[in-house]
Amino acid sequence: MLSDASFKRYQRLICLPEVGESGQKKLRDASVLIIGCGGLGNAAALYLSASGIGKLVLCDDDVVEVSNMSRQVAFRNDDLQQAKVIALAQQLRSLNPDIHIRTVQRRMDETSLPLEVSLADVVLDCSDNLHTRHLINQVCLNNSVPLISGAAIGWNGQVIAFDFSRPSAHQSCYACMVPKGTAIKANNCSEIGVIGPVVGTIGNLQALLTLQYLVSLNEFMPNQLYKFDGKCMDWQKLKLLADPDCPVCGGKRQSVSEQEETLLCRQLSV
Questions:
Q1: Looking at the domain assignment, is residue 215 inside a domain?
Q2: Number of structural domains, the chain?
Q3: Backbone angles phi, psi at 22, to 5 degrees
Q4: Which of the 8 DSSP states describes residue 253?
Q5: Whole-prediction pTM value?
Q6: Sequence-separated contacts (24+) of 11-15 with Cβ below 8 Å
Q7: What CATH number has the domain bearing residue 234?
Q8: Of 91, 125, 93, 264, which Cα lies nearest the Cα of 206?
Q9: b/e per residue, 55-78, with b = 16+ CB within 10 A?
Q10: Which residues are catalytic?
Q11: Does 269 fall in a domain?
Q12: What's the angle, vertex CA 160, arms to CA 22 and CA 98, rounded to 5?
């Protein structure tokens, strides 16, 4: 049962027929792992904590710098040079003291990531480099844990969910979209730039997809790539088909046409 205080705090969520008290209990009992506490992680963590996710695990090895402040909106000037996970946790506890937050102040690697993923109900990839993204994808697939991956650069952003908890012959993975070893120039915010609201938009969508999954919303759609153009305010929704030759999830997958593979599998924003 929810306490009277919890019922009052989450009343606007509970009154939604798709959530109700049972859905709010699912959120309270859920554990979400957020890898990367930059702009995406800031936005996602704020809304997940406000929504009553019972446990958040924040992973990042970086510190707050003044150049972060234009898009990483959970941080304050007093947080400069403090570890991002500590600064973000402080803000989240101030927003919602009822949730449990654990911080991991290190970069996730082959040793630490499998344990963290195995303890999570959902993983949010808010990281900023290809190596980490591919590692997260592999470990989530191995542990049958859903993955919500987001990215933003310049005026553009994208988000996609992979439901590895339900193995399927049609299930794709991040490596189907961005194959390992593909010659793609990795974009970097410090070199190319990024507009803050686009980062917030994608982070919020990661939180929204997480809530959809946790309350078992019928409309939750994995393998759908949502692409946003902040200049033109345009959205694209593309079906990511599995690559039968994918070294991560291939071997039992359906084919992907050359045209679709070119369209869906050769773009990267971090």
A1: yes
A2: 1
A3: -65, -40
A4: P
A5: 0.91
A6: 13/51, 13/52
A7: 3.40.50.720
A8: 125
A9: bbbbbbeebbeeebeebbbbbeee
A10: 189
A11: no
A12: 35
